[in-house]
Design brief:
Strand content: 25-35%
Strand order of the largest sheet: 1-2-6-5-4-3
Largest sheet: 6 strands, antiparallel
Structural class: alpha+beta
Distance between the termini: 22 Å
Shape: globular
Helix content: 25-40%
């Protein structure tokens, strides 16, 4: 099994490289683990939203909003539903899947208008939580 995961993981290097760059360039350095959604999370002040959008779009260049979600892939629509649904102002960032692994980012502004949360994850049949912890320096 670990050999299969190792082979699959090497095919996923473009995703892991993009996530490594995302972490390195992220305007807010702190990342934590969101055990509810099994992904990494960063909350930041809305004043750095433009920079955050720019950095995020390098790793996950396709953006889906509430109005465009019906045109998204079934996998991205399911990710949106599992996370509580995509509402006005919320976005799902994505890149093309590799080997049935869908990278994504959930952009969720808070109701106070001051704070935004980003969650970054991988939708896959294989559990990549340990790899996400390694890439973003989070604890389980």
């Amino acid at each position: 099994m670990s050999r299969i995961l190792g082979t699959m993981a090497s095919h996923l290097d473009p995703i892991f490289d993009a996530f490594t760059q995302l972490r390195a360039k992220w305007p807010k350095r702190g990342w934590s683990w969101d055990s509810r959604l099994n992904c990494v999370a960063s909350s930041f002040d809305a004043s750095v939203a433009d920079e955050a959008h720019s950095v995020l779009s390098q790793a996950l260049p396709t953006v889906w909003a509430e109005s465009t979600m019906p045109k998204a892939s079934s996998v991205l629509r399911e990710i949106g539903e599992r996370s509580g649904g995509v509402r006005a102002g919320q976005l799902i960032y994505a890149s093309d899947p590799i080997a049935s692994v869908q990278p994504y980012g959930l952009w969720w502004p808070w109701g106070n208008g001051q704070t935004i949360s980003l969650r970054v994850g991988l939708d896959a049949a294989t559990d990549f939580n340990a790899k996400l912890h390694e890439l973003f320096g989070t604890e389980p």
